[in-house]
Amino acid sequence: MGDHRPLPQVETRIDPLRILVTRRWPHAVEQALANKFDVTFNSDDKPLSKKELASAMGEFDVLCPTVSDTIDAEVIAGGDRVRLIANYGVGFDHIDVAAATAKDIAVTNTPGVLTDATADLALTLMLMATRRAGEGERELRAGRWTGWGPTHMVGSALKDKVLGCVGFGRIGQATAARAHHGFGMKVAYYARREMPQASEVSGTFYPDLEQLLAVSDVVSLHIPGGPETANLIDAAALAAMKPGSYLINTARGGVVDHEALAEALRSGQLAGAGLDVYPAEPQVPECLLGLENVVLLPHLGSANAETREAMGMRALANVEAFAASLPLPDKVA
Predict the structure, then answer these.
(1) Which residue among 24, 59, 299, 309 is the active-site one?
(2) Residue 1 has pLDDT above 90, yes or no
(3) Quick one: which of 31, 130, 291, 330 could link to 156 by a disulfide (CB 3.0–4.6 Å)?
(4) Binning pLDDT at 50, 70 and 90, where does residue 8 land?
C-alpha cells in the first residue's frame, strides 16, 4: 500500500499520530507532514484498492485521500481507528460523509486555494471550445492543414455573449469576473439565492435553471457533485440551451448526462463543449471520444504547482488542528 519515505526533518518532535497519504503530494507538503507526524506515503502513486483503503481505516488515525479515492460506507466500515479524513481537494462527493459522521469521523476539505486555478481552466476550455483550438491542433499535427482560408475553422467570439454560470460560489464568481472584465461577456447566473457579489460583474440572477440555459451562449458549471446534482444537465436541459451554444464543465463529471451531451453535439444543438471532469475517472465516456467539437482535458482544474502545494498545506493545517485538539478550519462534517 505504501512505505515510509525518508525525508529530511527540521523538527525533532514527531507526533505519534499515524497518517496515510493515499497519493503523492507536492514534495514541500510531504516534507512538512513528515517533519511533524508518523506518515505513510504511497510511493507508487497508484490509486489504492477499496480493500487497502478499508484496511487503512483500522491502521491509521488520519486518512488523507484525493478525488481518485472512493471512501464509501464499505471502506469506512473497514476499521475503527481513523478519526479524521483530511481530503486533498475542495470537492468531497467521493466520501460518504454520512457514513463518516455515523462513526464520529471528522471530514475536512481544502476550499479557497484552488479557486483561481479552476477559474483559469474554465476560461481555457471556453476559449478552446469557441475558437476550435483542439480541432485546429489535431488538424495541424495530422498534416491535414492546407493553409489559411477565410472560412477555415471559424469559431465564435466571446465579447458581448452571455455567460451563464450554474452555481455562483467562489469558482463561479472568479470565472464570471474573468469572462466579464477580461473578455467583455455579459454574466447571468443560477443559484439558490441572489448573490450580492454578482453586482461586481453586472450579473443577472435567474432562479430557474431552464430560463438561464435559454439565454446563455456559454453555460459553465460550478456546482458540487452528489445525488442532488446527478445528471442535472440531462437531455431536457440540453434541449433548453440556446441552439449553437457551448457547455463547460470544471465541476464534477456526474452532473452531466454524457450520452445526452454527445447527441446534442452530434445534432448541432450545441456547437461545442469543454470538459475537465468525468463520472468514473480515469475512464472518459466513449461516446465523446470520436467527436471533434468537444475539448477533453484530464482533470487539470487545480493543476499548477502553486495551487497543488497550497491545497496540501491547507490539508496539513486541518491535520495540525486535529492533532492539537483545536477546531478544524475546514470541517465539512
Answers:
(1) 299
(2) no
(3) 130
(4) very low
> Where do the domains of the chain lie?
15-113+304-323, 115-296
CATH number for the domain running over 115-296: 3.40.50.720
Report pTM.
0.92
End-to-end CA distance of the chain: give it in Å, rounded. 27
Task: Tell me the average pLDDT across 79-96.
Answer: 97
Residue 266: in which H helix or E strand, if any? helix 258-267
Residue 263 is among the residues annotated as catalytic for this protein? no
User: CATH fold of 15-113+304-323, please?
Assistant: Rossmann fold (3.40.50)
Catalytic residue of the set 74, 259, 281, 309: 281
Assigned C-alpha cell, 156:
465564435
Q: In what order do the strands lie in the sheet with 62-64?
A: 37-41, 15-21, 62-64, 84-86, 106-108
Cis check: omega of the bond before 282, within 30 degrees of 0: yes
Q: Is 252 a catalytic residue?
A: yes
CA–chain centroid gap for 10, Å, is: 34
Please tell me which residue in 222, 252, 308, 314 is annotated as part of the active site.
252
27 tagged catalytic = no
DSSP secondary structure of 114-162:
THHHHHHHHHHHHHHHHTTHHHHHHHHHTT------TTTT-----TTPE
